[in-house]
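Self-study notes.
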Amino acid sequence: MIHYDPGTWGILFAFRIKGSVFPKSLVWAAPCSVTSVILHIIIADNPAIFHQVGAGDVGASVLTGFTFILGFLVVFRSQQAYSRWWEGGTLLQQLRGEWFNAYSCLLAFCNASPEKSEEVLVFQHRLARLCSLLYFTAIQQVSTMKEKNYELLDLDDFDKDSMEYLLDAPDGCEICLQWIQRLISEADEKKILKVAPPILSRVYNQLGNGIVNLNNARKITEFPIPFPLAQMITFMLLFH
């Protein structure tokens, strides 16, 4: 895959040589162009040959074909862009629904015994902050904005070394997901959660479904429109 930055106006990247198909295409296009120029000169200097060949208005035919191909490519790319945008929005909504359902289930599964009230409160606060951090890191991974400062619950009670490890990790979302899974397991062992294991396993499934949807959404930002296609469309628009 060829990584490229379209830039502010989406034009300068088209003049890049690395990854371009133009050098190879010139090997075939240059001889054809030279041959066409020679034939055009010969036919233009000999009207009899022009009528015998029956070339007609070649310029109009070439322009019509060029415009048709350009229109097809522009429509195709627009359709692909809209499909990718819609798919990304759908995946993020599914991700949010899966994780919200998992969070709400965990709140419902908390032990209602008075002697566990303090531990339950600590668990709920930590879970809320971890879920906020989980969604925060997920949005950062799929965002294309330069400033990725989104709303986040305070993390003052979290261990400093853990936060530094999270910031240095290549995939903070997976680290945060592991913390949540570990928190749920510890809460289940301490009887903070009062629920049958088969029902609790659904929470793990919902957390896993969310991370799968996130990875599917990440491909939209990590796999842009192929560079040769984007370069060709840009050049054709400039020439047109």
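Second protein, same conventions, sequence then structure:
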Amino acid sequence: GTTQQLTDLTVPLKVGQSVDEIFGLPPLFPLSVTWKCVQSDVKSGRLEFYSENGVPGIASNCRMIFDIQDINAGDTTSSGSKVEFRMEFRPRSIIAKLAAPILSIDNALALKLLLPMAMKNKAHGVSTESLAPIDEFRQLMGTLYGVAGIAHLIDCTVGPSQLLLAAGAPTFGQLPPSGQLYALLWCAAGPISYAASRMGGTGRAADLGLIFYGLVEVFGAWLIRFV
């Protein structure tokens, strides 16, 4: 028989290597995409992944492009990098179209918050070896959803409701009372998910928190069709 070689995710992927991304609401609504590294150029700072099949029935011809630049080139007293990210895909269903604004915010949070946090922990020698990989994932997603919930609350109550408008809904102030209550529930789902991800134990609370957030977000996207 053949032996499948696992990809070491602790080192940068080389051209031709692949990695599976699992997302959605597993086990209720599991989604996955297999990314293949098509460009990994250290000199130019370009890292590119492509998936022709994407998520079957939802999106195809998916592409992720990372451009990494040294912002302190030639300066030996300090160091830092600038990461620019671009995602492209061909929508195959309404789910992909509704998810576009949500993906934009989640990707921004990942680059501007989670990536700097991970790099800072690595620089200070903070280890997560005491946590199982699934628990690391739970805490990572809980943190992401928690920050997203707070960002959504600020955007809805004192901001221009950019995410609601991008999804095709009216601004928060123009929503009916029931719509405003649901929008606030959506905002609260993030901190609830974050709190559940830090409860420890068997991880059931963390899983329920992540599923709760996802269900609220997906059902809310469906409700927008009737606004």
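Instructor comment on the second fold: The two ends are 56 Å apart (CA to CA).
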